[in-house]
Amino acid sequence: MTASPVLARSLLFVPGGRPEMVAKVARCRPDVVVVDLEDAVAPGEKERARAGALAALRAERPGAGVVLVRINPPGTAWYAADLAAVADAPVDGVVLPKYERVEQLRQVRAALPAGSRVVVGVESALGVADARPLLAAEGEDRPDAVYFGAEDLIADLGGRRTPGGLEVLHARSHVCLAAHLAGVPSIDQAVVAVRDTDVFRTDAEQGRDLGYHGKICLHPLQVEAAHLVFTPSAEESARAREVLAAAAAGVGVVDGQMVDAAHITMARGVLARAGIGRAEA
């Protein structure tokens, strides 16, 4: 059985080494909670973090529609044990980082219960270069969502991160484009300035403009901002209704702006994101 796509405005990562935080994340109401056994845990703490995080998950499921565990990448010393432990845990699936080959996803799906969700991270030079064939695979070889990891990509390339982000713009756009063509929900890069909500919101707006469906959140403060950016406002929804109504009536202009097929498609997308559906279409 193929899992359903993971649609998320916010993908909140919780450090696996801080199991006491697992039960608290419900306060900020993220769409998806990810208990992180990879980047958030030092190499010497991996086994302890895994045991503590899974014990916390068994004791109390976090308050979110989807709960996942980010395992360590294939080829690491912790990958097999992570995957085996998560397969028996009360979660909805896993986040597979450093995704580079379809065989990696195939192996993860085979180890998990039927219907488990798998979100992949495209965050290496090879992963970004091969994003389209990786995401366009058929059936269970297609992931349920993808996130773009800018920090790991630049580390892999030996580049430098800048406030403007031009160094990752091509890769960021490429992953979003590949995801769209494959029909895979896409989740935008993290903002590591976790308490600067202005920086986060600006970056989220850029991701939304590119076509991303949601954003990685590293702190509860970022969740509200992500929801504001990736949920169309009442004004945007009203405008979308106007465009569809005008198109249905054969009117070619709304507020002095031409209405054509592209504008109709965008209006439908706005209403779909707002949860209104396509009744007006």
Rounded to the nearest angstrom, the distance between the terminal CA atoms is 32 Å
| Low-confidence spans | 276-281
What structural category characterises the helix and strand content? alpha/beta
Rg: 19 Å
What helical percentage do the residues reach?
40-55%
Number of helices: 11
Largest sheet: 8 strands, parallel, barrel
Could you give the count of β-strands? 10
* Main β-sheet, spatial strand arrangement: 1-2-3-4-5-6-7-8
Strand coverage percent: 5-15%
Q: What is the average of the pLDDT values?
A: 89
Spell out the helices and strands N to C.
EEHEHEHEHHEHHEHEHHEEH
Morphology call: globular
Polypeptide structure, described:
It is a single chain. This protein is α/β, with parallel strands linked by helices. It has helices at residues 46-59, 79-87, 102-111, 125-129, 131-135, 150-157, 166-182, 197-210, 220-230, 234-248, 261-273; strands at 10-15, 32-36, 66-70, 93-96, 117-122, 145-148, 186-188, 214-217, 253-254, 257-258. Helix 8 links the parallel strand 7 and strand 8. Helix 8 runs parallel beside helix 9 and helix 10 packs across helix 11. The longest helix has 17 residues, at 166-182. The radius of gyration is 19 Å and the shape is globular. The two termini are 32 Å apart.
Descriptive key words:
281 residues, eight-stranded parallel barrel, alpha/beta, 43% helix, two-stranded antiparallel ribbon
SSE layout:
Layout: E1 10-15, E2 32-36, H1 46-59, E3 66-70, H2 79-87, E4 93-96, H3 102-111, E5 117-122, H4 125-129, H5 131-135, E6 145-148, H6 150-157, H7 166-182, E7 186-188, H8 197-210, E8 214-217, H9 220-230, H10 234-248, E9 253-254, E10 257-258, H11 261-273
Parallel strand pairs: 1-2, 1-8, 2-3, 3-4, 4-5, 5-6, 6-7, 7-8
Antiparallel strand pairs: 9-10
